[in-house]
Amino acid sequence: MTMRRFPISTLSILLALPAALAAQGVTKAFTGATLIDGTDRAPVANATILVRDGRVVSAGPASQVTIPAGAERVSLAGKTVIPGLVNAHGHVNVPADLNTYAAYGVTTVYSLGGEPPSVFAARASQDTPSLDRARVFVSGPVLTPITPEEARTMVAGVAAEKVDMVKIRVDDNLGTTAKMTPEVYRAVIDEAQKRGLRVATHLFYLNDAKLLLEAGTDFVAHSVRDLPVDDALIAALKRRNVCVSPTLMREVSTFVYEGTPAWMSDPLFLAHANTEWITQGKDPVRQEALRNSTAAQRYKVALGVASVNLKRLSDAGVGIAMGTDTGPQGRFQGYFELMELELMVKAGLTPRQVLHAATRDAAKCMKIDAHVGTLESGKWADFVVLDADPLVDISNVRGIASVWIAGNRVAR
Ligand SMILES: [Zn+2]
């Protein structure tokens, strides 16, 4: 059916050419920056990053990378380059969110639920050297089946939609709602695995985390927040090679609008923030309600538990994938990722560990590391140019000089 039986005129081929092809054959050389490539390699001073057709050809010391004649040169002298940030747990509501994430250096977002068809379409069109917004991966509707039969039907449904991962929610919202039973999530996981799909799980409680790991979940999309993680959980995570996404900013978002946070007047925040959410966040009536909300105050405590658990899991060698759960109201995409990195350092991780969690390790955990996560030959040239070294102070991720996706400068 797809065979072309008739000759197509040159003109019609040219008209049909996607804009993408215009970027093909273009070679760019980014010179002079200190390169933190996301691997274990020490930072490289005066590096050259050679990019062709949107992908890294080579990245290393200027003395070792030959710039071909005719390459377009971009001087990044005095700057520091890091791989684009990979958010392992965000939510993309509309394709424009991908510009917002990119503006803050988040060049890949694994969206764990709720994407409309337009975001599926964005995913389908992103393997192009002309890309200049964040890449996205999708989960479709978050599944909350009631019976095992319904579980299997729902998994078949999202499999037909060609999701990248299945997302389930195993939580009782601090004891206020019914929680998915083990019988049901076992059916979800079994059905997903039969179809070659991985399952990401929203959870809250230590005991649920253990049962879900036993059932075969592939990704823990939030911190355990009720109790300290224990040796049994750590052993199960490591044995099954399952990563955890701390999403500390998710907890912050539940109580931070009990007042007006200082960062709401940060020009970097204001540059791309959802103005409706700002108005809601500053609403005195809502702020008063949050101050009196038992749930908000309990999530504040949960943030402390999550932070201690992050350090413990990291020390034990469990895979940590930076995630934020941004996208729902009041969870500002892009800016919250930068704050997440700061909270991870505050929890006790080193800036290097945090950068790894937000680049190479997040990509590995989500199984997209063949294409993103480090600046190595063959991967997409997605990177952030910073004014100062984030290994010295993680807050230097806020000093963004420019963002590049597939070697294209992001408008911001
Ligand atoms: Zn989420």
Describe the 3D structure:
This protein is an alpha/beta fold and 412 residues long. It has a domain at 85-367: Metal-dependent hydrolases (TIM Barrel, Alpha-Beta Barrel), CATH 3.20.20. 34% of the residues lie in helices and 17% in strands. It has 15 helices and 15 strands. Strands 1, 2, 3, 4, 5, 13, 14 and 15 form an eight-stranded mixed β-sheet that branches. Strands 9-10-11-12 form a four-stranded parallel β-sheet. It has a three-stranded parallel β-sheet with strand order 6-7-8. β2 (44-52) and β3 form a beta hairpin. The protein is globular. It starts with 9 loop residues before the first helix and ends with a strand. Residues 1-14 have low confidence and may be disordered. The structure holds zinc ion. Zinc ion (ZN) binds at residues 89, 91, 112, 325.
